[in-house]
Every structure is written in C-alpha cells, then in structure tokens.
Design a protein that fits this description.
- It comes from Marinobacter manganoxydans MnI7-9.
- Its EC number is 3.1.4.52.
- GO terms for molecular function: cyclic-guanylate-specific phosphodiesterase activity.
- The chain is built from 20 helices and 22 strands.
- With 578 residues, the protein is of the alpha/beta class.
- It is globular and about 90 Å long.
- The protein has an 8-stranded mixed barrel, surrounded by 6 helices. A 6-stranded mixed beta sheet has the order 1-3-2-4-5-6, with helices on both faces.
- The longest helix is centred in the N-terminal third of the chain and has 30 residues.
- It has 3 domains: 133 residues, Response regulator (Rossmann fold, 3-Layer(aba) Sandwich); 151 residues, 2-Layer Sandwich (Alpha-Beta Plaits), CATH 3.30.70; 253 residues, TIM Barrel (Alpha-Beta Barrel).
- α1 packs across α5, α8 packs across α10 and α12 runs parallel beside α13.
C-alpha cells in the first residue's frame, strides 16, 4: 500500500518515507508543512515489496528511513537502497541519540541521522533541505562535469579536488576506491592524420561512450590532451574493478568515425587503488600513471594494476575472460562425455556433456577455474548454446553409429535464464539439428530458478512441450528442492556426490539418500547418483533401487572418440554374455 499526497509539480521535493506506521508518516509530513522554501510531495511505504517497486519505478529526491524498516540487516538494506535508488540520499531515523547510532549508520551509507528524542520541525526541515540541496548541487556538478569532458575541457586542479573529496569519503566510510588512468596510444599520429580539431572530436566521442558505461557515482574527467581519468568509488573487491574495466574496454573496442573515416584506437590503462596504492591524490595519480606506462608494453588495449596482489587477482580474471572469448571463436572448447549406467540392466542409458577448454598455453583448463569467469562475464550464455548445439550433433551421430536411445544431458547455467530469448534460441537449435527431443535432457540447479522463478518455470514448460526433459542437479544441497519438484516438469533428480562419497562413513548420508530415492519414486521421478567410485557405494545404491549411477567406478568423462570406443566395448561384452 502506498499513499502519494498529490501530483508532483516541477521543483517539488519528492520524498519517499519508509516506515511501518502511518501515524509516523503523518507526523513527519506535518513537520514539513508550512515551510515556505519547501513544497514536498511525500509517499508513504510500509511494505518491503512495495518499497522495491517504488524505488525502481518511481523517482524520488530523498528517502526518509525509519531504522526498524529493513529485511534483516540495516547495513545490507542501506546498500540495497543505494543501488536501487541510484545513490539517492537516505535520512535515517531512530530512537537512539546520535552518538549511539549515527557513526554506524553513516558508515553504512546513510547521508544523515536524526534521533526521535529531539526531533522537531526545525531539525527535520534543516536536514531534509540540506540533503535535497546537496543532491541538486551534486546532479548539477555531475552534469557540468560531463559537459566539460565532452567539450574537451581540461582542468587538473578540479580533477585533484574531486579525487581528494572522493578519498575523504572513502576514508570516512571505510570503502576502497580505484583510480583509472587512460592514455590513447599513438595519439600524435591521430593528430597528424586528422588535425587537432578532429582529434579533439575523437576524445569527446570516447569520453561520451565511457560516461554511458559508468555508474552515476563514478567520475570521468579529461586531464590531458590524450588522457582521461576515472574515479571509481565504493569498491568492494577486485571483482568490482574488473567489471568496471570490462565496461571501459568494451566501450573503447568499437571503432570511432571521424570525418567519414573509421578509426580504431587502442588505450593503455593504469589502475591504482586506495588504500593499497596510496592515500593521497598525488600518490594515487602517480602510481596509476606508472601502471599505465607499464601497460604500454603490451600491444593493443591493455591494463596494468599498480598493486601486485590486485594485479594477480583482477588481472588474471580479465586475461582469462579475454582468452575465453577467443576460445569460443577459435574452437578451443570441447565436450567430454561421462556415461550414466542403468543399475538394473548395467547398460549405458545416457551421457552427461561436460565442457573442457584446451588452452593453447595452459593446456586443459578445468571447469572449476573457467566456468565462474564465464558466468560472471555473461559468456556462459553463448557457450551454453554452443554446448547444446554440439550435444545435438553428437545425438544425431550416436544414432548413426548404432546407439539410437542414448540420452544426452546438458547443464543449464542460471545465467541462461537472464536471456529473454532462451526458449526461442534452444528451439531454433534443436529444429535445425532435427533430433529426437526426448533424448535431450537439460540439467539445472536450484540457483538457476532463483533469479526470476515465474519466467524460469514458463521457459521449462515451453521446452517440455517440445519433448525436452529436465533433471534437477545437486539435489539435496538446496533449500527448496521439495517445492521445486512440485512445480517444475522435472523427470529426474541427481543425488549430489557429496552424499554418495560419505556412504560407509556417515549414517546421515545413508538416511538422506534413502529419503531422496523414496521421495522421487513416490512422485514418479527417476534418480541418478553422482560420484560413485566404490563397490560398496554401488551396492548400497542398488539395494535402495536407485535407477542410474554416474562416476569413476564405471567411467571418467572422456572425449567423443573414447566414448564411442567405450560404448562398442560394452556392446561386445553384452553380446559375449548372451
């Protein structure tokens, strides 16, 4: 339930009041009434669900937050408000005196704090007006800064002032900060080819691209003829920095058109972080500059970190991601196949398709190393479709080789459900492959369903209508397995190998496996046990009437040629037994 007081007029203060008590909302609204300098339009929100909808879909200048209103953690809720509202100021209210609560809440992201004990119309109006005017000045400065960059304005004093202010904010809040120093490679040649005016236009176009790829809280300035600087505030870890660099590199990748001619530029990028690389504006810029010159040793657009540890962690992530992009184009990716054995007949019922990467320098890179990188960068989406394409080709080939009923199981990443054309793309792949869809099985984990459960369920129903079946992977390790089984078109569950490997050592593992098999069979769902390695594990699962097993006891994951050989040998053995 939300109660807007009136239609917003130009110049009005738009206020969102987060409090569970309507009487408090009326009280706060009354404190603002009668102020000749403020015309406030206040909206009351007592509910967390409405809060998310309002913040993401409406526009507010200021949030007044009663500290009892949160989803379990005040600090986490403040972080959520900052992200969802695009850094709108939050005025926190609570019963405690400022000395007791203010330092903690301000450090967590609140812009100001007021105690109910001494709250009157003067204190409240003063705080509200102060934050509102500060926000207007910030927006004005941000817009002015953008115009200055776009018009080629260079002011190093203004840049140092902004960097110093950002450092003070980082120190007060206990946040990290990163400074990115960008230099256009071989800018002299561009000047000579196009002249200074056209070269300046190129810088403006690059700056405009970068500005659109950055967060509102980040600052972009031109600090030299061929130099740009980006101040990245509120950095959590090296992953945050890699995401910013990824956006920057992506923005600079596209050619620029000047005077009808296409120009490809490369940029050297140096990164220095607070507090690791320094605690003053001068030190930070000097060290980012040094890292930038190190980056110039590498061909093309490249980056270096001043801090060694960050260079190792964040730099390695980005290099791996760049290599992975090339791997998808350069046919370095390969599928391995692990057989699934029917326990009743000991025949190969199907295979799980597992991704491997043959890196030209590192050799075979394990999925535990590159799959997280693929998921964070979004590369897992095109890679996932490539895996389905390859599985469909092998499915066709297996029928031609005399294994017509072999099921091919493919893992579906949670990121796949972020693609709103997932169903359409998978349909096109299987239509072009012309395969028996009943032999294609998609494995998903519970995390795949968490981003947008309604959309995920709709996708699964649509794909299920095409004949595709679904398996729930890592069953027993999540929190909502039972509810998922009730609402999803799941035909198979896979018992996580962590339970199987505890067989013989843990009575709990035995009880859990018995319960999973019993539950699944009562719902007419088949069960596969993963990670089976010993005769004892196999015998226990056989006694519990597990349907299929998968693990080193029978076969490790193997390339296609080895799988064909494995299938032929098992076929020959079956013939000899007859």
């Amino acid at each position: 339930m939300t109660l807007p007081l009136e239609t917003v007029r130009p110049g009005q203060l738009r206020l969102l009041v987060l409090t569970p008590d309507y009487a408090d909302f009326l009280w706060l609204n009354a404190l603002l009434a009668g102020d000749v300098e403020i015309s406030a339009d206040a909206t009351w929100c007592p509910d967390l669900v409405d809060c998310d909808d309002l913040i993401r879909n409406a526009s507010f200048d200021l949030i007044v937050w009663d500290c009892v209103f949160h989803g379990g953690s005040e600090a986490s809720f403040l972080q959520y408000l900052a992200v969802a509202s695009n850094e709108k100021p939050v005025l926190a209210l609570s019963a405690e005196l400022p000395g007791e609560r203010a330092p903690e809440l301000l450090a967590s992201g609140a812009a100001d704090y007021l105690s109910r004990q001494n709250l009157d119309h003067w204190n409240f109006r003063r705080a509200v007006k102060c934050l509102w005017y500060r926000g207007q000045l910030s927006e004005s400065a941000h817009g002015q800064l953008g115009r200055e960059v776009a018009t080629g304005f260079i002011n190093r004093d203004l840049f140092f002032d902004r960097l110093q202010q950002a450092l003070l904010r980082a120190e007060r809040a206990g946040h990290r900060l990163a400074l990115l120093h960008l230099n256009i490679d071989d800018f002299r040649s561009i000047n000579e080819s196009f002249g200074y005016q056209k070269s300046d236009q190129l810088m403006m176009k690059l700056a405009e691209r970068l500005r659109h790829s950055l967060r509102r809280v980040d600052s972009l300035m031109r600090i030299g003829g061929d130099e740009l600087a980006i101040i990245v505030e509120k950095v959590e870890d090296s992953l945050d920095i890699t995401q910013i660099i990824r956006k920057v590199v992506s923005a600079l990748d596209e050619p620029v058109t000047i005077d009808g001619q296409t120009v490809v530029v490369s940029v050297s990028l140096g990164v220095a972080t607070y507090p690791e690389a320094g605690d003053s504006a001068e030190n930070l810029l000097r060290r980012a500059n040094r890292a930038m010159f190190e980056a110039k040793r590498d061909p093309g657009t490249s980056y270096r970190f001043y801090d060694r540890q960050l260079h190792i962690s964040a730099g390695y992530q980005l290099r791996l991601e760049a290599d992975l992009r090339n791997a998808l184009r350069g046919k370095e990716l390969e599928l391995y196949y692990q057989p699934r054995i029917d326990l009743a007949t000991e025949e190969v019922r199907g295979v799980e398709c597992l991704l491997r990467w043959n890196h030209p320098e590192r050799g075979l890179v394990g999925p535990d190393e590159f799959i997280p990188v693929a998921e964070r960068s979004g590369l897992i989406v095109p890679i996932g479709y490539w895996v389905i394409e390859q599985a469909c080709k092998r499915l066709q080939e297996s029928a031609e080789l005399g294994f017509p009923g072999l099921v091919f199981a493919v893992n579906l990443s949670f990121r796949q459900f972020h693609d709103r054309k997932m169903t359409e793309t998978i349909f096109r792949i299987i239509f072009n492959a012309n395969v028996d869809t009943s032999l294609l099985e998609l494995e998903l984990t519970e995390s795949a369903m968490m981003h947008d459960p309604e959309y995920a369920q709709r996708c699964l129903r649509e794909l299920n209508q095409l004949g595709i079946s679904f398996a729930l992977d890592d069953f027993g390790t999540g929190f909502s397995s039972l509810s998922n089984l009730q609402h999803l078109p799941i035909s198979l569950v896979k018992i996580d190998k962590s339970f199987v490997q505890e067989l013989g050592n843990s009575a709990d593992a035995e009880h859990i496996i018995r319960a999973i098999i019993s539950l699944a069979h009562s719902l007419q769902i088949s069960v596969v046990a993963e990670g089976v390695e010993t005769e004892g594990q196999l015998e226990f699962l056989r006694q519990q009437h597990c349907d299929e097993i998968q693990g080193y006891y029978y076969a490790r994951p193997m390339p296609w040629a080895d799988l064909v050989q494995f299938l032929n040998k098992r076929g020959e053995a079956a013939c000899l037994q007859q």
